[in-house]
Amino acid sequence: MDLRKQLFELGRITGGWWIIIVLFYPVYNLIVAAVALLTGFTAEPLAFIDSARLFDPGAVFFLLAVVLLFPSIEEIGLRGYWFDQLQTRWSALVSSLILGTVWALWHVPLLYMSGYYEGTTFQPELWWFLPSIVLTAIIGTWVYNNTSRSVLAVILFHFFGNFTGETMGFAPEMYPSVTIGTVIVAFVLVIWFGPGSLRGRDVPRPLPDWATVRSTP
Description:
With 217 residues, this protein is mainly alpha-helical. The protein has helices spanning 2-8, 15-38, 57-87, 92-111, 126-145, 151-168, 175-193, 209-215; strands at residues 46-48, 169-170.
């Protein structure tokens, strides 16, 4: 199964991409926080995790679900089973926008579930949260396409994003600014790597097993 390879072949992720996967979100949060401090926007841009939560079994279980279980379900479902089919028909950018829109709509009911985000540092609102999800899908595609379509890579990228948000997240007043920062990052990636593939020129694009079979005469 091609999905099995995408999940377990560590060789798809080269050394430099391991660094990006692990450090992208912590570095991004620190840069945005530094800009907020230097511009006087706020004196406390980051909301660090309450140490008491680390000793609450229920809170720890929910934290593990948020940072590990949910990213695995979402990325396997959207990237693993669907995204390659989108990319065979549209550019990486358009495919990301389609996936990101579905991914954003998936989160809408969660915003109306009483207490769902109560145990987290996150306080989302539709007007900025949904666009940020769509833009984050573009960044995820950049990781995915540059790691030989590794679903494991985007799961880990998603994991470290959620983990950073839960342990070193932003104060609520920072959320609109963070969305603007995500716009800037996505724009730079599209311009630099190109909307067609969002992939470096020296990175091959391995075909999915089903696409290889279909193209065989």
